[in-house]
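Study the following:
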Amino acid sequence: MTYFRALLNSPVGPKTTHFWGPVSNLGFFIAGVADLQKPPEMLSGNMTGVLCVYSALFMRFAWMVNPRNHMLLTSHVLNESVQLYQLSRWAKHHGYFQLKDVKTPA
């Protein structure tokens, strides 16, 4: 019981935004995993790129904030990984990873 009470009253416990922020950010990760079933032409390159930048910025914030928020860092690492994968699917579909035949001048 004392462990539960200590967790409840900790500076990163469920009474704080240090807990509920990461929990709500897991929604981005869950949505990204659900989008893995979508064909790549249905993905938005702009939105996926924005989510990559957003998660990268907030990974740094989660590391620098005091007390350090490992839950927030973890939720953004998960989101960054799934969004980077989605961005690579989108880019492959649109031909960004194809090598073009370059003819050299004679």
User: Anything to note?
Assistant: The first helix runs from residue 2 to 8.
